[in-house]
């Protein structure tokens, strides 16, 4: 979409109309949007993608229109071609499991903590930046997309290897997000209750 928009030669009025439409769409989905281009927070140093593989459970997040359920989790598996298979799953309000598969890849080998994720063939990759992780208990992920550099929409996820994370750790991750310019007041706690009961059915 960014490439498409960049190629459009808009008048000032057209640009304003486009901006209003995009902002309205983002607001309707309770997205976190801001003026200007995307920030570039520091990412995890010496990121080890092999240690990052496995299942992560969502603890908190910025609003995301594509997430509609509870018990959200993501499972990553390193492939022979060094891409990463992605499986996101959640339980919808009607009790059904909703899942989607995708592929992630490191964009630059000198920055392995910056990945791109695609869930649809031919669609542009979505940014996936690992800002912090100890690989064993927590991970902090950030994603941001800008539109004509007039405004940007961002997402953030606090993940854990279990369905709960100590409050002290969550507070430390909040501090990292604040230093990156993320509005932590927009973070929402994810519902990870009664998930195992559903899996046993």
Quick overview:
The protein has helices at 2-6, 12-28, 49-52, 167-179, 195-200, and strands spanning 32-35, 54-61, 70-78, 84-91, 97-106, 114-118, 126-133, 138-147, 151-160, 188-189. The protein is of the alpha+beta class. The protein has an 8-stranded antiparallel β-barrel.
Strand arrangement, major sheet: 2-3-4-5-6-7-8-9
Relative strand content:
35-45%
State mean pLDDT (0 to 100 scale): 84
Major sheet size, sense and barrel closure: 8 strands, antiparallel, barrel
Number of strands: 10
Low-confidence stretches: 1-29
Whole-angstrom Rg = 17 Å
Query: Which structural class matches the secondary elements?
Result: alpha+beta
SSE ordering: HHEHEEEEEEEEHEH
What is the 3D form? globular
Amino-to-carboxy terminus distance:
41 Å
Helicity, as a percent range: 10-25%
Work out the helix count: 5
Question: How would you describe this protein?
Answer:
By secondary structure, the protein is α+β, with helices and mostly antiparallel strands. The chain is built from five helices and ten strands, in the order ααβαββββββββαβα. The chain has helices at residues 2-6, 12-28, 49-52, 167-179, 195-200, and strands spanning 32-35, 54-61, 70-78, 84-91, 97-106, 114-118, 126-133, 138-147, 151-160, 188-189. Strand 7 and strand 8 (138-147) form a beta hairpin.
